[in-house]
Amino acid sequence: MLRIKGGTVLLPSDGLQRTDLVLRDGMIDRVGAADAGMALNVSGLLVLPGIVDLHGDAFERQLQPRPGVSFPADLALRDTESQLLANGITTAFHGVTLSWEPGLRSLPAWQALLDALQANRWTCDMRVHLRWEAFNLDAEETALADIAAGRVHLLAFNDHTLSIVRKLKHPVDGAKYSARAGITMDAFRALADRVAARADDVPAAQQRVAAAARRAGLPMASHDDNSISSRNHFRTLGARICEFPITEDVAHAAAAAGDFVAMHARHQRPHFHAVAVAGADFDFSRLVREYFHQRIADGAHRDHRRNRHAAPAAATANTACRVACRSRRRLSSGR
């Protein structure tokens, strides 16, 4: 038995309270003053639920800190785990893009990362958020097999291909894609054109991937919805998470339909998604994705300083509701 004493504890109904937590067998036994067990004095500190990071990209920096420099997946994940835990993130859904691009987001990179996750024991609960790139038809069988095998915990529908094709017309914008892939700009442009030519086959593939996710009971998201019709389409596939909507109209429509709306940790890139600028006006869970793990924890504490007594749990409570982490949402007995 372990007693965490002297801290300010975030409670589900009472907000921040000075009290103790008693842990037994890895669970919260009770909340309140107690004398039994070994004591850990945390006076002056906040005691909060572990943060659930629904969409983390930061692990990519450990895999490839710069173009042409790569590290093995198991080593990169150990560094990533240390950063996650240091910032209070105890459940992390790594946003792993399965794309047609060579290099960092390729099929071999996907397989290496999932194998490394399974081959090691981790303190942080690290899960896989499959960012399925719509035009990656050649990897469909792998995606379906990994979903069926339980190696995927959240599915998101991505569609960056046509945007990439447009950006490749500009040397500066396009250079980051060819550098990340480790091939020349001309080779990358030719590959992107071949992939984009298969647009007619994309809808059926999305249907098949969505059906596999439904059979596996996975939560699903659509990424960067830029229109209400797009959000409505993905809802029909079973995707009830609207991830980073591009406009306020889409965000409001999704919320009105009962969808969960996921946003970047606030104001890191306010120019990128219009709704992020007005995020404070919406009753959405905002703190679910960052390129730096520190920003999620910092954002929660910024909200706390603005007198939102439950805000430090925003990164956990609402995201957890949608992605089957209910036991981690709050500090209460039996959790």
Briefly say what this structure is:
This protein is of the alpha/beta class and 335 residues long.
Secondary-structure map:
Layout: E1 2-5, E2 8-11, E3 15-18, E4 21-24, E5 27-31, E6 38-41, E7 46-47, E8 51-56, H1 59-63, H2 73-86, E9 89-98, H3 107-119, E10 125-133, H4 140-148, E11 154-158, H5 161-167, H6 171-181, H7 185-196, H8 202-216, E12 220-223, H9 228-236, E13 241-243, H10 248-256, E14 260-262, H11 274-277, E15 289-290, H12 293-305, H13 314-322
Features:
single chain, 335 residues, alpha/beta, Urease, subunit C, domain 1, TIM Barrel, eight-stranded parallel β-sheet, four-stranded mixed β-sheet, 13 helices, globular
Which strands sit side by side, in order, in the main sheet? 14-13-12-11-10-9-8-15
Q: Please give the share of residues in helix.
A: 25-40%
Helix and strand succession?
A: EEEEEEEEHHEHEHEHHHHEHEHEHEHH
The major sheet is characterized as:
8 strands, parallel
- Number of helix segments? 13
Q: Label the CATH architecture of the largest domain.
A: Alpha-Beta Barrel
